[in-house]
Amino acid sequence: MENYLDFLLYNKWLSHNTIIRYRKSLKKFECFLWSIWKSLSRIYEIELSDVYSFIYNERNVWLSTSSCNNSINAIRGYLRYCKNILNLNVLDPTKITWCKAPERNVWFFNKEQKTLIKKAVNNWIWKKSITQLRNKLLTYMLMNTGLRVHELAKIKTEEIWESLQVIGKWWKRRVVFLKKELLDMIYEYLSKRNRDSEYLFDSTKEGKHLRESSIRRIYEQLTAKLWFHIHPHRFRHTFCTDLLHIPWANIYNVSKLMGHKRITTTQIYLWCEDVELKKLQFWLKF
């Protein structure tokens, strides 16, 4: 199992939080298998009924549908790894069906919230001015690029140009473009930083980048100053939503820019206001 998790981390570039979630799900599945006298190490003995019994057991402890689907995703991925990478004769992962989930809600910042965030970031007082400049740059990068937190943390200074090559989840490569405003902010931050590092957002530990958990803690402190919660991944949701509501936007291009594996993922961010739907309906005349 640990080899599989390392494979996801270093070969598929999944975030540390995702790896932790996969480990937790597989550990729970392993404990369940022990209860029915089976073991995860003997993966070829696992049957479809064992997986469904585990999911049924999970639902009985009042876990949400999305939590159960996360467990299914971890099990399917592990079976796929054993089948395709280790060439083991295991249960076909495609036979494990998903739990029916309600329509996914996408939370994003509205215009008023974005204005308040910019104002708060510009007035964010820290003991060191370089820390304030770093946090401001973090926020503007998240706002204007749609990068995931782990993608942002791993940016190296040598990679920064007008365009930025990003390797996202599942080793999917894409190009992100940087505005002049962002480039000026980056150069100002690098000129004032008093230590050399290969990473744009470096850690106090030599040769390391800022951890995802540290970035989340930064925005927990900013949340305390505002009346709404600021989760860094919500900047990505906002970026994608705003792009799709540009009149001449193409959903295929937006999907490429966001690094989505499927266009159906991008479609989640599409929504219409009641005013637009009313105009559309009343357009017809009989």
What does this structure look like?
The chain has helices spanning 2-10, 16-35, 48-60, 65-84, 111-122, 129-145, 149-153, 180-192, 212-223, 233-244, 251-258, 263-267, 274-282, and strands at residues 163-167, 173-177. By secondary structure, it is mainly alpha-helical. It has 2 domains: 2-95, DNA polymerase, domain 1 (Orthogonal Bundle); 111-267, Intergrase catalytic core (hpI Integrase, Chain A, Orthogonal Bundle). A two-stranded antiparallel sheet has the order 1-2. 21% of the residues are buried.
Q: What count of structural domains?
A: 2
**What is the count of helical runs?**
13
What is the element string, with H for helices and E for strands? HHHHHHHEEHHHHHH
Number of strands: 2
Largest pleated sheet: 2 strands, antiparallel
> Could you say what the CATH architecture of the largest domain is?
Orthogonal Bundle
What is the strand arrangement across the widest sheet? 1-2
* Overall body shape: globular
Q: Report the span from N to C terminus.
A: 64 Å
- Which structural class do the helices and strands define? mainly alpha
Strand content: under 5%
SSE map:
Elements: H1 2-10, H2 16-35, H3 48-60, H4 65-84, H5 111-122, H6 129-145, H7 149-153, E1 163-167, E2 173-177, H8 180-192, H9 212-223, H10 233-244, H11 251-258, H12 263-267, H13 274-282
Antiparallel strand pairs: 1-2
Helix pairs in contact: 1-2, 2-4, 3-4, 6-8, 6-10
